[in-house]
Structures are given as structure tokens and as C-alpha cells.
């Protein structure tokens, strides 16, 4: 899952990006409204975390411009102002939730899950395929009662495959959703991680990750 963070306070921006990446999300970031809007227009994100008080262009204007141009990516606003009027303005302009600073990361992640579930980007906390269970909250993978030791990238890959079971996922789509915009598009990083994931899965599950030559991968 890929997140965009737009926050002008350097330390908070850094902490948000670090926490999100530690949880297995692919993250892009910007420090002002113009940069954030540009990134949101040219890249596909599952969620945008957007500060309201931004230089060059405030978060409300960014949100309004995105909605006007048909970009419906869920948006959680961040702000230091805790008034009913501010909250109503953010929600009326097209925001999906509103988080007042300072906040705990656990509250942020809880709100992210709620927003993603409400906007149909997240269908549930647990994804299942026969005896395989992937828990998006604990970021753990189980087969029957055995926990699999997977990396965050492998977890992201498996989650993407499970959510799109039966569909061919291109290498570009995998890079877009599991890695951030700083990835090397000419490397074989996807192939390597798919190979490693197959090695860790029992044979009957590894065989279900099909290589569709010239296109990408598919979980059947």
C-alpha cells in the first residue's frame, strides 16, 4: 500500500515517513502544497496524509484541486487547530478524516484503517486463502498455526496478490504499491522478492503465484 505524506515541519515529516515505512507502507513525501499536489496528480496513492497549514498552497486548496480534477484518493488532514469550523471546512472540501496535532501514531494508524475500509481500499484486517492468513494489523502471516518469517516487502507483495487474486499485477503496479518513487525501475528487485516469497511459502501456496510472462504475476 502506498501513502503520500505532505507536511512542512521537517521532523514530523521525517517521523511520519519512518513510522509508515517501518509498518511496511511505501511512502512518498512533500514539504509544501504545490509539491504535494503535483505528486498526487502524477502518482497513484492509496491514501494521502495532508497538513492544512502548508507553504505555497494550503492543504484545503490542494484537496479541492484534486477533487475538482477527479482524484478521489482518501485524504486525512493534519492540523494544529481544533475547532468545529475547521473540521467542517476540511470535510466539506473533500477530506475523509481530520487529526489534530499532537497525535499518537497508533491513533493515526487506527484512523487510516477506518478511512481505507470506508473508502473500500481495505476490505478487512485479515485476508485468507485456505489455511493461509495475512493479518494487516499485526503484519503477520500464518499457515495453520505456524507463523511465517517474512520481510515487510514480502508482506506487502503477498497482501497485494491476495487483494487482487486472479488478476495479473504488472511489475510496474507492484513497484508503485510496494516501493516508493525512489525505486530503481530497471532493477530486478520485484523478481528477487517474488522468488524469496515463494521459497518461504509451502509448495502448494508457492505454486499459486504464477509468472505471466511479459506481463507480471498472478495469485490463483
TrEMBL record:
Residues 2-116 form the Response regulatory domain. GO terms for biological process: regulation of DNA-templated transcription. GO terms for cellular component: cytosol; protein-DNA complex. It holds the Pfam family Response_reg. InterPro entries: CheY-like_superfamily, OmpR/PhoB-type_DNA-bd, Sig_transdc_resp-reg_C-effctor, Sig_transdc_resp-reg_receiver, WalR-like, WH-like_DNA-bd_sf. The modification 4-aspartylphosphate is found at residue 51. Gene3D superfamilies: 3.40.50.2300, 6.10.250.690, Winged helix-like DNA-binding domain superfamily/Winged helix DNA-binding domain. Residues 124-220 bind DNA. Residues 124-220 form the OmpR/PhoB-type domain. The keyword Nucleotide-binding does not apply. Keywords: DNA-binding, Phosphoprotein, Transcription, Transcription regulation, Two-component regulatory system. GO terms for molecular function: phosphorelay response regulator activity; transcription cis-regulatory region binding. CDD domains: trans_reg_C. PROSITE patterns: OMPR_PHOB (PS51755), RESPONSE_REGULATORY (PS50110). PANTHER family: REGULATOR OF RPOS (PTHR48111). This is Two component transcriptional regulator, winged helix family.
Amino acid at each position: 500500500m502506498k501513502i503520500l505524506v505532505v507536511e512542512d515541519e521537517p521532523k514530523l515529516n521525517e517521523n511520519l515517513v519512518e513510522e509508515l515505512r517501518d509498518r511496511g507502507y511505501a511512502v512518498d513525501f512533500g514539504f509544501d502544497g504545490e509539491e504535494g499536489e503535483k505528486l498526487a496528480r502524477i502518482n497513484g496513492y492509496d491514501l494521502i496524509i495532508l497538513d492544512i497549514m502548508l507553504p505555497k498552497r494550503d492543504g484545503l486548496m490542494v484537496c479541492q484541486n484534486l477533487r475538482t480534477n477527479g482524484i478521489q484518493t482518501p485524504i486525512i488532514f493534519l492540523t494544529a487547530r481544533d475547532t468545529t469550523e475547521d473540521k467542517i471546512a476540511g470535510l466539506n472540501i473533500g477530506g475523509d478524516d481530520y487529526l489534530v496535532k499532537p497525535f499518537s501514531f497508533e491513533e493515526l494508524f487506527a484512523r487510516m484503517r477506518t478511512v481505507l475500509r470506508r473508502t473500500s481500499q481495505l476490505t478487512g484486517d485479515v485476508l485468507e486463502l485456505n489455511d493461509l492468513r495475512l493479518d494487516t494489523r499485526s503484519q503477520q502471516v500464518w499457515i495453520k498455526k505456524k507463523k511465517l518469517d517474512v520481510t515487510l516487502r514480502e508482506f506487502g507483495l503477498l497482501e497485494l496478490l491476495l487483494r487482487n487474486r486472479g488478476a495479473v499485477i504488472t511489475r510496474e503496479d507492484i513497484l508503485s504499491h510496494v516501493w516508493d518513487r525512489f525505486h530503481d525501475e530497471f532493477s530486478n528487485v520485484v523478481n528477487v522478492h517474488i522468488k524469496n516469497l515463494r521459497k518461504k511459502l509451502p509448495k502448494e501456496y508457492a505454486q499459486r503465484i504464477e509468472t505471466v510472462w511479459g506481463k507480471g504475476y498472478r495469485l490463483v
